[in-house]
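Progress narrative, Year 2. Work on Cation transporter from Alloalcanivorax gelatiniphagus advanced from sequence curation to structure prediction during this period.
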Amino acid sequence: MACCEPELDKQAPVAYRNALIAVLAINLVMFGVEAAVGLFSGSRALRADALDFLGDAATYGLTLWALGQSLTWRFRAARIKGFSLLLLGLLVLADSLVSLITGAAPPGVMMSGIGALALVANLTSLMLLVRYRQGDANIRSAWLCTRNDVLANISVIVAGLLVLASGSHWPDVLVAMAIAGLFCHSAVSILRQANAEQRAGQRDGPGPGGDGCGPAR
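Result:
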C-alpha cells in the first residue's frame, strides 16, 4: 500500500469516490424506509437496521471526506467512526432491553419484506465496494459496515419468519441485540486498526508530506 493511501490503482480514487457516493445515497434512502416502517410496526430489529443504515451513511460520508486528507485527520476520522458505531450499538442494545418488558410481536411479513428490500440494497453496495475492501482503517471501515449489513438483513428476514410462525416478539428482540453486537464488534475492530496504524506511523517517522506513514498492512 502506498504511503497514506489505500491500495488502489491509478484510476481507483475517482471510481472509489463514485462508489462511496452511490452507497451513501442507497443507505440514506434505506434509513428513511426502515425507520418509518420500524416505528410503524414496532419492530426493534427494523429500528436497529435503520440505525445501521444511518451509521453506514455517516461512515461513507466520513470516508469520502478523509480521502486525500493528511494521515492525522484520517486517524481522527476512523476514530470518530469507531466511537459512533459503538454508541449506536449501545443505543440499540438499550432499546432491545426495554422491549423485553414492553414489546409486542411486530408483523412478521412486514419485517421479512423490508429485510429483503434492505438485503438487495446492501448486496448492491457490497458489489460496488468489493474491490476496495483492503486498505487503511477508513477504507476497511466502509467495507466492514456493508458486510455486516448483509448479515443483519438476513437475520431480520429470518426473525420476521420466526415471528410469523411463533407469534412471539423474542426473535425480533434477539436479532436487534445481535445487530447491536455487530455494531460494537466493528467499532472495536476499526479503533484497534486505527491505533495500530498510528503507532506504526509514529515509529516510522513522517512521510514526504510531513505526516507519519506506516507500512502497508
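The chain has one domain: 12-203. The two ends are 7 Å apart (CA to CA).
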